[in-house]
UniProtKB/TrEMBL annotation:
This is Glutamyl aminopeptidase. It comes from Harpegnathos saltator (Jerdon's jumping ant). One of its GO terms (cellular component) is plasma membrane. Residues 1-62 form the Aminopeptidase N-like N-terminal domain. One of its GO terms (biological process) is peptide catabolic process.
Length: 465
C-alpha cells in the first residue's frame, strides 16, 4: 500500500517510519487463492462459498509494505519451487524458464552485494498474464506482468533479454532498500528507490560483464533527468513528498526524482570509490535491518567509512544538503587562457533567476599531444570562482570525468574548438565514451540556449560519422 492507502484496508498510522508486527488473515470467495508477505499457517479452512487463510506473523514492517493478493484459483495455476522461492504461473513453463532463471541469478548477485542472507522462509513470485499491470513487489511477494519479463531466444531480439533482466533486478533490489530498511518519512522515499535503481544497474553490469551497460544506463538517466527536471519544474529532492504531491505529478514526474537521487548517489560513489560505497551500504542494511532510516543515517555511515581512509576532508552531509535542498542543477563555465596557462571556472545555476550554492566535485583531464593526464579530485563551492594553473603544453582541459557530477559544462570558444579538433582526430577514443556523450548533449543544450552556435554543435556531433 502506497501513501495513505493502507488505512483503507485496516486502521493504522500509515507512516513508513512506524512499524509493527502484522498478523494477517484473509476471508475471500473460494474461487480465489490468497497471498501475502508471509507463508500460510496450518488451520485455514473453506466452506461452500468462502475460505479463510491465515499467515505467519511478519517481521517489524511498515503498513505500506503489507501486501495482499487474490488470484483466481483455477486448474491453470501452477507452481514451481526453487530453494525458498515459489513461482506461480498460468502460462506454459517453457516460456517462463528464462525469467525464472533470471530471478535466481539476480537474487544471488543481490545477496552478494548486500550481505543479506535469506530473511524469509519463502518468497512467492507470481507471473500475471495481463500487460495492463506493472511489475510490483514487496517483502516476501513479487508480482510480474508476463509481458514485462518474458523472453524467447527464437523470437525476441537480444535487447529484450537485457530489458527483462532490468525489470526483474529493479523489483528485487527494492526488497532490501524499501522493505528490509524503510524510510522514516514519505519525503525520504527517494533514498530507497534511488539505491534500488543503482543496485539494479550493478546487477545488470555483473550479469553482462564488459558490456558497458552501466555506461548506457548512466547516459540515459543523467541526460533525461537534466531535461525533465526543468520540464516538470521539479521541487528540491528533500522537499518532494509523494504523499502530498498531486496525482499527475506522481504519475509523470516521480521517477525523475528517483533518477536524480540515482545521479547524486553515483556522484558520491565515484568520489569515495565504489568499494567504499558498497561497504557503507552493507553496513547501512545491517544496522537498520527491519528498522526505519533517514538519508542522514546513511550519510553518517558513509562518513564513518571515509573517516577511516585518507578522504577525511569530505563532509558528506554538508555536500549533500546543498544538492538536496535546491532545485535543478549547476552549470560550470570553463575559460581557458593558454597564454597564461590558467583555467578559470565560474559556476551558475541552470535557473538564471536564482543564485543557489552547491558544493561541486571538480574532476578534470589534461589533454596534450603526447596523451592525457588525470588529475586528483577536489570540491569547490559554486559561489567561488576557481583558478587553476596548468602546464604550458596542454591543448585543452576536459571537466567532469566520466560525467560523474550532476551538472553541465560549457567551454569558451577556443576550448570548444580544440575539443572539436581532438574529436576528429584518430585519438578521439582517448576521451571516455561517457564524456563524449556529455559533450554532445551539453553542446546541444547550450545551442538551444543560444550559448553555442549551431555550426559548433554540428562540428562536435559530426565526429560520429
Amino acid at each position: 500500500f502506497q501513501s495513505n492507502m493502507a488505512r483503507r484496508i485496516f486502521p493504522c498510522w500509515d507512516e513508513p517510519g512506524l512499524k509493527a508486527i502484522f498478523n494477517i488473515s484473509v476471508k475471500y470467495f473460494n474461487k480465489f487463492r490468497a497471498f501475502s508477505n508471509m507463508p500460510t499457517t496450518l488451520g485455514g479452512h473453506c466452506d461452500s462459498r468462502a475460505c479463510w487463510t491465515y499467515f505467519n506473523d511478519t517481521p517489524l514492517m511498515s503498513p505500506s509494505n503489507v501486501f495482499i493478493a487474490l488470484l483466481e484459483d483455477n486448474v491453470r495455476l501452477k507452481i514451481i519451487k526453487v530453494e525458498t522461492d515459489f513461482f506461480w504461473h498460468t502460462s506454459q513453463i517453457e516460456i517462463l524458464k528464462d525469467a525464472i532463471g533470471a530471478i535466481v541469478l539476480v537474487n544471488s548477485y543481490l545477496m552478494s552485494f548486500t550481505n543479506l542472507s535469506i530473511l524469509l522462509p519463502r518468497r512467492d513470485h507470481i507471473f500475471f498474464p495481463d500487460n495492463r499491470i506493472n511489475s510490483m513487489g514487496c517483502f516476501g511477494l513479487m508480482i510480474y506482468s508476463e509481458m514485462g519479463v518474458l523472453y524467447h531466444e527464437n523470437f525476441d531480439f537480444p535487447g529484450r533479454m537485457v530489458y527483462t533482466r532490468k525489470v526483474i533486478s529493479h523489483q528485487m533490489a527494492r526488497h532490501p532498500f524499501t522493505a528490509v530498511v524503510t524510510q522514516s518519512r514519505w519525503a525520504d522515499l527517494w533514498i530507497g528507490e534511488s539505491l534500488s535503481e543503482l543496485y539494479s544497474h550493478y546487477i545488470i553490469d555483473k550479469i553482462y560483464s564488459g558490456s558497458q551497460l552501466m555506461d548506457l544506463y548512466a547516459i540515459e538517466i543523467l541526460q533525461s533527468t537534466f531535461q525533465y527536471e526543468t520540464i516538470c519544474q521539479m521541487r528540491a529532492l528533500s522537499k518532494y513528498n509523494v504523499r502530498v504531491a498531486d496525482e499527475i505529478d506522481v504519475v509523470l514526474c516521480s521517477r525523475w526524482y528517483y533518477n536524480k537521487g540515482f545521479a547524486l548517489l553515483r556522484m558520491i560513489e565515484y568520489m569515495m570509490t565504489r568499494d567504499k560505497f558498497q561497504l557503507a551500504v552493507k553496513k547501512y542494511l545491517d544496522e537498520f535491518k527491519f528498522r526505519s532510516a533517514t538519508p542522514y543515517d546513511f550519510w553518517i555511515i558513509l562518513q564513518r567509512i571515509l573517516n577511516n581512509t585518507d578522504n577525511q576532508e569530505f563532509r558528506i552531509k554538508e555536500i549533500m544538503d546543498t544538492w538536496l535542498d535546491q532545485r535543478y542543477y549547476p552549470v560550470m563555465h570553463v575559460f581557458y587562457d593558454p597564454k597564461n596557462n590558467t583555467v578559470r571556472l565560474n559556476i551558475t545555476g541552470s535557473d538564471d533567476m536564482r543564485k543557489p550554492i552547491w558544493i561541486i566535485p571538480i574532476t578534470y583531464i589534461l589533454y596534450h599531444s603526447a596523451g592525457y593526464h588525470l588529475t586528483s579530485d577536489t570540491w569547490i563551492t559554486s559561489s567561488e570562482i576557481a583558478m587553476t594553473k596548468i602546464a604550458p603544453n596542454i591543448d585543452f582541459v576536459l571537466f567532469n570525468v566520466e560525467q560523474n557530477g550532476y551538472f553541465r559544462v560549457n567551454y569558451d570558444e577556443e576550448s570548444w574548438n580544440r575539443i572539436e579538433i581532438f574529436l576528429h582526430s584518430n585519438n578521439y577514443n582517448k576521451i571516455n565514451v561517457l564524456n563524449r556523450a556529455q559533450l554532445i548533449d551539453d553542446a546541444y543544450y547550450f545551442m538551444m540556449q543560444g550559448c553555442v552556435s549551431p555550426f559548433r554543435f554540428w562540428k562536435i556531433v559530426s565526429y560520429l560519422k
